[in-house]
Write a structure and sequence with these properties.
alpha+beta; two-stranded antiparallel ribbon; disordered N terminus
Length: 387
């Protein structure tokens, strides 16, 4: 803590001594680098006969050159309202030519609360300011407030005035030489004419850079649009893959249905033909032959027992048996016919099975070809607009 306090006192003492040295030894500004004479912090250190001073109020000034070669100056003015009850900040923006800058003074449309996010109310122009670089340590300021400005802080057009301020911070230096009083050719080793040519080239390059940035952002936009189209294409491919999977499921389902239909048709045809043909024919022939045989056999036996001798009885029985066999012949023929029909049904079922399996193999080959054409989606590499 003591080290930090000592360092702060040393810095303040250095600034104070530097300011006194600047006041005693003013440096004329080089017209090439006059903008660096504006850059820094300035205040009015003089004390009047009554011991009063404006120290505590002051200006922070920034200098920057735009890509088209324009010299720009921005001034932050820290002061107080006429009643001395609140702080007031102004911002002045403008351009400089030679040693003079002409600026517009702006005030915020509404003040914001401490450390509380609010919607930015913007700024409005309330006056003008002229700044003249006397030397690398001194600036003459004059300002005028607009009569209809209606400032929020109580300041009005009667508070227009002027002030001479002194440098508080050191001049920006390069290689130990300040940039305000030293001509530019001292650093670059070129004449004024060569410097102007370089400045033109620099300006042209700046414009070219801006154009390249615009083109780059356009390419980024096109790339992002292509990425979106590619994503849509991959989504479409995913949908096709899902559709192919659904087709495979449907084919498997049809295979099961065909197998079931074949099994049902074969089993029903064979069972119906064999059962009804064989068993009905056999039962009918057997029952009828047996009943008739029994009836006639009983009758013949009774008659033979009474009339015919035993040999004749045997011949009668043989004749009756032969008749019964002949009577059963139609039943056997019906059974043979049903078996033949069942064989034809079985043959047709096998032929249908061969055709269905061939069709399924063909569809599987086509599905394999579709899957082989699928594209592997690369990882997306997002890029950001840059300037």
């Amino acid at each position: 803590m003591r080290s930090l306090y000592t360092r702060a006192l040393g810095t303040a003492f250095t600034l104070l001594i530097s300011t006194q040295l600047y006041a005693q030894n003013p440096l004329p500004a080089s017209v090439d680098n006059a903008g660096y004479g504006f850059a820094g912090s300035f205040y009015k250190p003089e004390v009047d006969s009554q011991g009063r001073t404006l120290s505590g109020q002051g200006f922070n000034i920034e200098y920057f050159k735009s890509s088209d070669g324009t010299n720009n100056v921005g001034i932050y003015w820290y002061t107080y309202n006429p009643a001395g009850t609140e702080k007031v900040w102004f911002v002045a923006l403008g351009t400089m030519t030679g040693y003079e800058a002409n600026l517009t003074i702006y005030e915020a449309n509404a003040y914001m609360r401490f450390n509380e996010p609010q919607v930015n109310a913007g700024n409005r122009a309330v006056g003008t300011m002229d700044a003249l670089l006397v030397d690398c340590h001194t600036i003459d300021l004059s300002w005028t407030f607009n009569p209809d400005a209606n400032l929020l802080n109580g300041i009005n057009s009667l508070d227009s005035g002027q002030m001479t301020v002194r440098r508080l911070t050191p001049i920006i230096s390069l290689l130990g030489v300040d940039l305000c009083s030293t001509p530019l050719e001292t650093f670059v080793g070129v004449s004024d004419e060569e410097y102007q040519e370089l400045l033109v080239d620099y300006t042209r390059l700046g414009r070219l850079y801006d154009t390249l940035v615009i083109n780059y952002n356009g390419l980024v936009s096109d790339y992002n649009a292509c990425e979106d189209d590619l994503d849509d294409a991959y989504d479409y491919i995913d949908d096709l893959e899902d559709y192919v999977d659904d087709l495979e499921d449907e084919i498997n389902y049809l295979e099961d249905e065909i197998d079931d239909a074949y099994d049902d048709g074969y089993d029903d045809g064979y069972e119906d033909g064999y059962f009804y043909g064989y068993y009905d024919g056999y039962d009918d022939g057997y029952d009828d032959g047996y009943d008739d045989g029994s009836y006639w056999c009983d009758g013949a036996y009774g008659a033979a027992k009474k009339v015919l001798p035993k040999k004749e009885k045997k011949q009668v029985r043989m004749s009756q048996a032969t008749a019964k066999v002949k009577a059963a012949a139609p039943a056997k023929a019906a059974i043979a016919l049903q078996k033949k029909k069942a064989s034809r049904v079985q043959a047709k079922g096998k032929q249908a099975t061969v055709k269905v399996k061939a069709l399924l193999e063909k569809m599987k080959v086509q599905l394999a070809q579709i899957k082989a054409k699928r594209v592997v989606k690369p990882k997306k590499q997002p890029i950001k607009n840059q300037k």
